[in-house]
Amino acid sequence: MRKTTFLVLVGAAVVTTAAAAWVTVGRGTGAPTARAGEIFLPELQRRANDVREVVLVRNNGTATLKQDGDRWILVEKANYPANGEQVRRVVVELAELRLVEGKTRKPDLYGRLQVEDPTSKDGRSTQMTLKDGQGKVIADVVIGRRRIDRLGGGRDSLYVRRKDDAQAWLAAGNVDIAGEYQRFLIRSLMDIPAERIAEVTTIQPDGARLVIRRDKPEDKMAPVDLPEGKTVKEEDKVAKAASALAGIDIDDVKKRGEADIPEASVKAEIRTFDGLLVKVATHETNYRAWARFSVETTAEAGDAVKKEAETLKAKVEPYDFELLGYKTAPFTTKLADLTGEKSS
Predict the structure, then answer these.
(1) Within a domain: 313
(2) Which one of 184, 203, 230 terminates a domain?
(3) Cα separation of 265 and 283, whole Å?
(4) What φ, ψ does residue 325 adopt, rounded to 5°?
(5) pTM of the model
(6) Contact by Cβ (8 Å): 213, 199
(7) What is the pLDDT of residue 81?
């Protein structure tokens, strides 16, 4: 396993006595154990490169970010690859927090700072637990409310608390873990250039087929076998068929078969000039568009395309993906969409 290397931490791990003032708070005994200006989690700063797992807990769920070989995965999202740079960034941000001043030790006041138990009914905090490769806890903290710098000093702060310590603190810095857990996923799924696309076929649940094709990359895409009396009024939708597999990013992911994509869903087949064939079934429910991909090759495929197909197959076939609605449009186009007629 390649050792994870985190960014160099800002500042020295040890703060000189002259730069720090005793804060008379401690864990349980009331004895002074920390100073304003000190690093909040000195052990984490020393061992940032040993972090192999980051667990985030909120009252609406848990996210486990774990190193798997040279990559990071999000366990609760079917072990889908996570953005390692984002994971490393939040570890460094946590390691760089410096104490500003001690706040309350009273649990009934934690809610004001959002450092309460994150699993409580009205909890708004996030528990953040960092572990090494053997599962040993390096740091276990509660991340609370952020205080945005309004004086132009360029330094935000937030309220924090060690999970095993009653003392809450205001700390200088920020740990950017806000938002949904999906933010840690690698969003880019595939990006097959428009010039490679030869044909896009959509099949509606009732069996109606629409084929948009061209013979050469320099040709314009055009519908095949347009019924007599029908004319294309939405030329942009025809042209966009060539970009069906370009720049596809995901919003969410589930294990294949877990998304609500019925057998009677809209299906599409996208073929490239060089023999790559991507099939996709899509279904929109509750304003969420889910897609299930399969990858094959045709007789035109050479060794390079066959290798590309195997790589893409391994990437997409274990999962179902939520996409932005506009990205699934080329997978669901009907003849009526091109002629401007109302669907029956």
Answers:
(1) yes
(2) 184
(3) 6
(4) -55, -40
(5) 0.86
(6) yes
(7) 98
